[in-house]
Design a protein that fits this description.
MetI-like fold; mainly alpha; 219 residues
Length: 219
């Protein structure tokens, strides 16, 4: 095995810039997924059968098809139908955000249903409308229970974000591919970027464990 990491040294700043590019995409996609996922979760526990069916169908489609397929449809197929060329960042955010919303909706739904039903019944008995009771009483308790699961979703998004390299978004993975093409050596830049991904995931995992520990101490 002939490894020569000296050749990637001049490219290290270029590859390190991919950390922020990657995290920026993940952060925005997670916010979109959280907002949309919360709305879908609330719809899933409503009594409206039509809306519940649509919410379940949304979740089924996005959880039942490959993420890379969803990304390709948004980036390549939608412009074919609309005539609008979607920027790589927007395509990535939409694909990851819409996909993440399906998973987050299930996390939040489970969190809401884990809250004692008597609390909502008590709020209704006191004359508190459904929406304020859900927003001020039920959701805060549910969020406390699901924060570790949301952190896991964040970690998963960070790892899966490498898929956006397939549409030439200049994230960590794409930058490693560019360097590999430039120096005609792929193992070294891919190994370097793989180490960065590992450190990012391990850092997020430690943060998630600390959050979970703090939540347990607060119980």
């Amino acid at each position: 095995m002939n490894l020569d990491f000296s050749q990637i040294v001049p490219y290290i700043p270029f590859m390190l810039k991919g950390i922020w590019v990657t995290l920026q995409l993940v952060f925005v996609a997670l916010i979109l997924g959280f907002v949309l996922g919360t709305l879908i979760a609330i719809v899933k526990i409503m009594n409206n059968k039509v809306l519940r069916f649509l919410a379940d169908a949304y979740t089924s489609v996005f959880r039942g098809t490959p993420l890379i397929l969803q990304l390709m449809i948004i980036y390549f197929a939608v412009p074919q139908l609309t005539g609008y060329d979607i920027p790589t960042f927007l395509a990535g955010v939409l694909a990851f955000g819409l996909n993440s919303a399906a998973y987050i909706s299930e996390i939040i739904r489970a969190g809401i249903q884990a809250v004692d039903k008597g609390q909502m019944e008590a709020a209704m008995a006191l004359g508190i409308p459904y929406k304020p009771a859900m927003k001020d009483l039920i959701l805060p308790q549910a969020m406390k229970n699901i924060l570790p699961a949301l952190m896991n979703e964040f970690i998963t998004l960070t790892k899966e974000s490498a898929i956006v390299s397939t549409i030439s978004y200049m994230d960590l993975m794409r930058r490693a591919q560019v360097v590999g093409s430039d120096i005609y050596r792929n193992f070294e830049p891919l190994l370097f970027v793989g180490l960065i991904y590992y450190l990012l995931v391990m850092g997020l995992t430690v943060i998630g464990r600390k959050i979970e520990k703090r939540l347990r101490q607060g119980d």
